[in-house]
Amino acid sequence: MELFITLWADTLHQRLFLLTLASYASLMLGSRFAYRLCCYDVPALLWRRMLMGLQNRLNRSHRHRKDRRVRGSVVMLLLALAITLLAVPLASATYATRWGWVMELLVLTYLIPLRHAVFPYLEIARALRAKDYQRAVRWLRPHTDRDLEKIDGHTLIRIAIMSLSCSFSRYVVAPTCCYLLCGVIGVLLCRLFSCVVDLFPVSHVRYRSYVAFAYCVDSIVHIIPARLSVLILGFAMWFTPKTSLRKGWNAIMQHDAAASAWGINALPMRMVAYGFDFALGGAGHVGGVAINSEWIGTGKSRLEISDLYRVIVWYGISVFLWIVLLTLAYSTLSASM
Description:
Largest sheet: 2 strands, antiparallel
Distance between the termini: 17 Å
Number of strands: 2
Strand order of the largest sheet: 1-2
Structural class: mainly alpha
Mean pLDDT: 80
Shape: globular
Radius of gyration: 20 Å
Strand content: under 5%
Low-confidence stretches: none
């Protein structure tokens, strides 16, 4: 038992070291060039085209829902197995070779985007300030399940804030927790299921059966990260101007129809809505079908560009606190060994 605890402590110490380095590297590489070439545009475009091709072939509308659910589950299991087989040599190289940790560091820098996750929303704010609504819609479309045609700028900002409020949990905290528990295999699988759920939203009638398995796994993975991220986000709200931490904290302690309707995204969205005095959610269109989602918050719904910048600042403070937390955790573990 003592040997197992010692080995686990050594593994956790090494993972915290690489994770802290990857966090600083992600901040330094958060430029427009790095985003477009190295991080998301090129690799993610190829990955999404492959997933979309499989979906178009296996998720045809004439098939029964049960058949599509089975096909989607089999595809996800095969992809998870393939990624696991690819990740095992990479994880082994970290321990077997002298410079294997560099490869793992590069993978973590790519898969855990601290600064890159907020980059699209900065572009949305710049586009709206220049009154270029088509460019703003282009940047927002991959990050929401809502239809963005025939909506005004205020609604566009509201949808952007709804998406950004969930980014810290989905793209930072959840992959980090999976890496600390399962190493590179965990973070790769976490990003795989998140990518599928983001690309094929379960709110679309066409994708609902096909991604049912992926959505179930993704929801289970985010149970603890969603609640852990709320603690960081709440503490960051304390340093964000024109916010109310008390209202945000009281809101996430409530359980009502709105919280149930939004699932794992309800906690950060409720904190943003009540802490910033916004009204998020509401009616819209998803996949061409009109929906009437529950409103979250009782504040203003006609949001301005300045409101989006305030949420971006809040996200930046959350990332800074997260890096500080990782650094303190690594220093504490190093001192105790």
